[in-house]
Write a structure and sequence with these properties.
Among the domains are: 101 residues, GSPII I/J protein-like (Pantoate--beta-alanine Ligase, Chain: A,domain 2), CATH 3.30.1300; 110 residues, Ribonucleotide Reductase Protein R1, domain 1. By secondary structure, it is of the alpha+beta class. It is elongated, with a radius of gyration of 38 Å. The protein is built from six helices and seven strands. Strand 5 and strand 6 form a beta hairpin. The strands form two sheets. The chain has a five-stranded antiparallel β-sheet, covered by helices on one side. It has a two-stranded parallel sheet with strand order 3-4.
Length: 302
């Protein structure tokens, strides 16, 4: 059928033939946006994976470095113990400082300190403890009172005597002191007084010091304990505790007890290990016994 002619000026409403390229710009922009979002998401995944890989590598390196430090500290401890029990030219003095260079930029310093020249706070009688307190400007009567409370604190029989302390704000624990800071629990002890006596006491030594002690304060405490203001002999009383699980292991008889401080420096890393070792005598089968070991700043563990 022939198409009907359209009058001049009339609007054509018949079938339209649109250019198929007319809608492509919008579709192309949407596709480009999807591509960009996909690439961004993939880049995020890749960057996260790389960051995780770097973190794991850093953690592995840190773990390896710490393991190497642990091995160096263990080797330093064995080196110190070997030289302390050795004889002749290889022997180290029990009071000394030694520098050991480990791998690369790692530096290890070992300091040894004999504790038998100190006042054994877990074994000494009240007169010697009172003499030490007097060196810190405590009056003799007050020194004896505080020393008596220190001895009572570690005395199991005093801890069982509940009638004597009924209604009191203070009562003895009946166990040895685990750290010098525990002395603050004793009636009459102050932080300033504790700070004064800490460099001169030991938690692990059982033997009493002598006038040959290199510690001048301890020698003065021995003199004061024998003065007219105090009872005559600073001997270990019946309250001296035996080694138990409730307190630190305490050296026996004539075994010298030594503190070993090991300091490791590697770049910005600082490590500190403390050992308390009881060295053997001629009659002992084992060359030494470790009474305590701790890996931090254990300044009050003497």
């Amino acid at each position: 059928m022939a198409a009907r002619p359209v009058p001049i000026g009339a609007r054509y409403t018949g079938p339209s033939h649109r250019d198929p390229r007319q809608g492509r710009p919008r579709e192309a922009g949407f596709a480009l946006l999807l591509v960009l979002l996909t690439l961004g998401f993939l880049a995020l995944i890749v960057s996260r994976g790389l960051a995780d890989a770097r973190l794991e590598a850093q953690l592995a390196q840190a773990a390896q470095a710490r393991a190497q430090d642990d091995a160096s500290l263990d080797a330093a401890a064995q080196t110190a113990l070997f030289h302390l029990i050795s004889l002749g030219n290889t022997a180290w003095p029990r009071n000394g400082r030694h520098v050991v260079t480990a791998n690369g930029n790692t530096k290890i310093t070992i300091q040894t300190q004999a504790l038998d020249s100190r006042v054994p706070i877990n074994a000494a009688g009240p007169t010697l403890i009172a003499g030490l307190l007097q060196t810190c400007k405590v009056q003799p009567d007050a020194a004896l009172r505080i020393a008596g409370d220190i001895v009572a604190w570690r005395d199991p029989s005093a801890a069982r005597d509940t009638a004597a302390y009924r209604g009191a704000l203070w009562a003895p624990a009946g166990v040895p002191f685990r750290a010098t800071a525990d002395l603050l629990l004793v009636r009459g002890m102050t932080p300033a007084l504790l700070h004064c006596i800490t460099p001169h006491v030991s938690l692990y030594q059982r033997d009493l010091p002598t006038m040959h002690s290199p510690d001048l304060v301890v020698r003065e405490a021995l003199k004061l304990s024998q003065s007219a203001a105090l009872p005559t002999t600073p001997q270990i009383g019946p309250q001296a505790p035996s080694p138990s699980s409730d307190g630190p292991l305490i050296g026996g008889g004539a075994e010298p007890v030594t503190r070993i401080d090991i300091h490791l420096t590697r770049g910005t890393v600082r490590r500190h290990v403390v050992l308390i070792a009881m060295l053997a005598t001629a009659n002992d089968t084992a060359p030494y016994s470790i009474l305590m070991t701790r890996s931090d700043d254990a300044g009050d563990l003497y």
